[in-house]
Amino acid sequence: MYKRIFTLGAVAIVVAALALVVIPWQGPDQAGANPSGAPIGKKVFQFNYIARPAKSTDDPNCGNGAKIFTERGAGGQHILWTLDPTGGIDILDCKTEALDGSYAHVTADAQATYSIYVVLLGPNKSDNSLSICRSLVIDDTGTELCELGSVNLSRGGGVDRYTFPTKLFADIYESELWTLEQGTNFRHAQVRLYVDR
Fold first, then answer.
1. Which residues pair with 68 in a beta bridge?
2. Cα gap 117→79, rounded to integer Å
3. In percent, how much of the chain has pLDDT > 70?
4. Which residue would you say has higher pLDDT here, 26 or 112?
5. How far is residue 103's CA from residue 175's CA, in Å, rounded to a whole number?
6. Mean pLDDT for the chain?
7. What is the pLDDT of residues 37-81, one digit of tens each?
């Protein structure tokens, strides 16, 4: 009996060793495919766009640069994107004007153009919605024409994820402005940036 248990244990060790040889290790850039509908390429940055309760008195913690906050029910909020010729992607201001009176502001590396993938999260209700209008920043007129694309996301039977056909910084302009309109049940969306491998 003891000999049989020992033999089975040895076989198990050999099988485990062979599995390690046959199955190559996957690094962080190789771990699985991109989510359904996401662009082909390497994800280089993501942040969460979060709507806080309107009566909240605490100051949101911007954390490690992976969050942008707005207020629930606040319409016409903005995120300004600008090129940074000296560095990578960074959130300079993580609050929209509903919270601090100024646009949220993100800078991104001038050496790359980015595919933009947006996923709407939260309750599966039709008024959990978010529309995004991408406009060129050309002058100070504040005109928002959605030249770079727009989308209306909704969890309640609508489109809840979207890849914009126009890449971020794929044109001669160094900045663009997002105007975001949220539904009454909007709580959370995720924005991901991808680059070609």
1. 49
2. 15
3. 79
4. 112
5. 13
6. 81
7. 788 899 999 999 999 998 777 777 776 779 999 999 999 999 999
Contact 112, 124 (CB under 8 A): no
CB-based contact 179:78 (threshold 8 Å) = yes
**pLDDT at position 78:** 96
Domain assignments of the chain as residue spans, ordered by start: 41-195
Query: How sure is the predictor about 141, in pLDDT bands with cuts at 50, 70 and 90?
Result: low
What 3 state SS string does the chain have? CHHHHHHHHHHHHHHHHHHHHHCCCCCCCCCCCCCCCCCCCEEEEEEEEEEECCCCCCCCCCCCCCEEEEECCCCCEEEEEEEECCCCCEEEECECHHHHCCCEEEEEECCCCEEEEEEEECCCCCCCEEEEEEEECCCCCCCCCCCCEEEEEECCCCCCEEECCCCECCCCCCEEEEEEEECCCCCEEEEEEEECC
Q: Token digits for 89?
A: 């992607």
Q: Which amino acid is at 194?
A: Y
Q: Encoding tokens for residue 21?
A: 């040889």
